[in-house]
From TrEMBL:
Domain of life, per lineage: Bacteria
Name recorded for this polypeptide: Regulatory protein ArsR
Residue stretches spanning the membrane: none
Entry-linked InterPro entries: ArsR-like_HTH (IPR011991), HTH_ArsR_DNA-bd_dom (IPR001845), WH-like_DNA-bd_sf (IPR036388), WH_DNA-bd_sf (IPR036390)
Record CDD domains: HTH_ARSR
Record domain HTH arsR-type: where: 8-102
GO function term, MF aspect, one: DNA-binding transcription factor activity
SUPFAM superfamilies linked to this entry: Winged helix' DNA-binding domain
Length: 123
């Protein structure tokens, strides 16, 4: 099932599951925020959290599989940078869900208005 687009390509359900699954963890959300503002090495990220270097590497790997971050070797360091296009794709999908919800709310409001008009016409 195709649910949106990412850089013009279809964003399938597995992609959506990976993105939102990755964002379901507070540490991973924090990493995304940090690397969207500025690329950081995995080791500098690891110093920010009360967990092992290996645990931070695993979080980064989950984010990388979801295309929320990219790693690039710079000398001896692995630099992590955020992928704003994937974040935008997730935001677009959430906006689509919001539009569906708002459409339902608008229809309910219309029904209530029609119901109120009918009662006044009978009174």
């Amino acid at each position: 099932m195709v649910v949106g687009t990412l850089d013009g390509a279809a964003l399938d359900q597995a992609d959506v599951d990976r993105v939102f699954g990755a964002l379901a963890d507070a540490t991973r959300r924090d990493i995304v925020v940090r690397v969207l503002t500025q690329a950081q090495s995995v080791s500098s990220l690891a110093r920010r959290y009360d967990m092992s270097f290996a645990a931070v590497q695993k979080h980064v790997a989950v984010l990388e599989r979801a295309a929320l971050v990219h790693k690039q070797r710079q000398g001896r360091e692995q630099m992590v940078s955020g992928d704003v296009e994937t974040v935008r794709a997730a935001a677009r999908l959430l906006a689509e869900y919001e539009a569906i919800w708002r459409g339902r709310v608008d229809r309910i409001a219309d029904l209530l208005t029609e119901s109120g008009d009918d009662e006044r016409d009978q009174g």
